[in-house]
Amino acid sequence: MNMEIKLFGKWSCEGIEVRDPGLKRYITLEPRLVPKSRGRYRAQFHKSKMHIVERLITKIMVPGHKGKKHFLTSGHCCGQWYKAYKLVKEAFEIIEKVTKKNPIEVFVRALENAALREELTSFQVGGIIVRKAVVTSPQRRIDIALRLMAQGAYHKAHRNPKGFARCLAEEILAAYRGDIQNSYALREKERIEREAAGAR
Predict the structure, then answer these.
(1) Does residue 37 contact residue 47 with C-beta atoms inside 8 Å?
(2) With a threshold of 0.85, does the pTM exceed it?
(3) Where would I find the H helices in 40-183?
(4) Nearest 5°: CA angle at 170, between 107 and 97?
(5) Domains of the chain with CATH codes
(6) What is the mean predicted confidence (pLDDT) over 95-115?
(7) How far apart are CA 186 and CA 191, in angstroms?
(8) Strand, helix or coil at 51?
(9) Among 65-69, 77-81, 147-151, 157-161, which is the least confidently predicted range?
């Protein structure tokens, strides 16, 4: 008897296709019961082998700071894996209740929508700083999208009675629907790409 492996014991990853051809090799959706690799893929160029939901969990453990000089910081987050695991599971349950769809597929679509394609880099020429638009690599596109989702949910949940899981679910749903007004990740993507377009 062949038992199907479902993520969190609830949702199947089978049949979920990554539509963005640039991200196909970098979003892993292999069947896993628990998205935890115990640091097996911690090397920089192997993290694409890590399940995409596990990468979200690791970002949620410490969302990181916004802007330079820790303008908004998450430095007090203690990086408890099981706590982040439960929050993601709860957020996926909320997504399933709202959309009546597989939350993993909703998350993958949200990630594709939030992954920026172009950004700015600065370099010095003589005595001046030049800003130039550059194409973002696929691995970095996913990293930035995950970070922006985690930070958006973290800042929205600050002193909010809704709680983090609901705020994360709302952030993923807004990115999935392309709702720029309610998605921090989409707003930041739009801003960065607009600045890059101006520096071409």
Answers:
(1) no
(2) yes
(3) 52-61, 81-99, 103-114, 138-157, 164-177
(4) 75
(5) 24-198 (1.10.455.10)
(6) 93
(7) 9
(8) strand
(9) 65-69
